[in-house]
Amino acid sequence: MSEAIALPAGAPAVQAADEQQLATITPRELTWRRFKRHRLALASGCFLGVLYLIAALCEFISPYKPETRNVAAINAPPMLVRFFDLDGRFHLRPFVYGYDMAVNPDTWMREYTVNPSKRYPLEFFAKGDPYHFWNLARGERHLFLAKGGYVHVFGTDQLGRDMFSRVFYGARISLSIGLVGLVMTFVLGIVLGGLAGYIGGWVDRAVQRLTAVLLSIPQLPLWMALTAALPPAWSPLRVYFGVTIILSLFGWTILARQVRGRFLALRVEEFVVAARLIGARKMRVILRHMLPNFLSHTITTATLAVPAMIIGETSLSFLGIGLRPPVVSWGVLLQQAQNYQVIVMTPWLMIPGLFVVLAVMAFNLFGDGLRDAADPYNTGGQG
Question: Which of 117, 151, 185 marks a domain boundary?
Fold first, then answer.
């Protein structure tokens, strides 16, 4: 004979309180609660926030300007920031050891060895290369510098330029292209997809044919052709926006199809019909009444398009047909690692590629978490 299981005292009251709280919670709060349970996506969002903050403050965080050369450390390997010296003694202030350079008589390559007598302590908020912060204010304070010497945390390139500084200066360009392209993708996808789903008829057929044509063309060859057609006399700023527009030509197609499908379902709802009957304009019905019903899902879909734009810019710049020096981006930096010999002898030149991988993975995980949190019928995706 089975025994009855006794419920704890007050359990029905607690359950009723939880149900009442869930009934009064707003959709935004519910989405945030679901997103917080996706720990991997939350960590990815924090990482992206830190990365964009570093890119925004790259003049201050970088110890040198991207064009500053150190002729005493050409193709020098990364320096290790230490608290313990080679004798095992602890130092409260972090420091780096300088290098001694010698040319190998057999290979004619520069070889660097650590010199314990060259100990350079790090100074924080020290004065260094002057810079224009966002072309708005002058400054000369840097997060850290080496007192009496130099510091190259990521090593240097073939001209002696600091890779640490160039990577974070490049982050501003590569990451901002993703955001600017996201805005264009968001606007084009919502406007064209919304008009196709709301108006229908020849507008719907035209948008559908256009998206089908764009999706049937291989992206990379078309990107290469359009980017190569940019006038070589253009300024770096014009090339930047030209590449951004080219990368956005494909990002809006998937979003437009999803928006169109949602609009086809919403245009027969009672609140949409009521808005039309009282004489509301088409764009007001779309933007004020229909779009807020699936805005979170739309933002998630647009966010997942950012990694493709970052990879697209990196690929075009790596091939030499996107952004070009003196512009510094992750793709431009990777041009230095185009042959096997360079990768073997100076593997630290591949560090920009590592940042591309980390940024793309973080965006994908962050977008997956947003998608799971925005879907009220999804029970998975919790990390």
Answer: 151
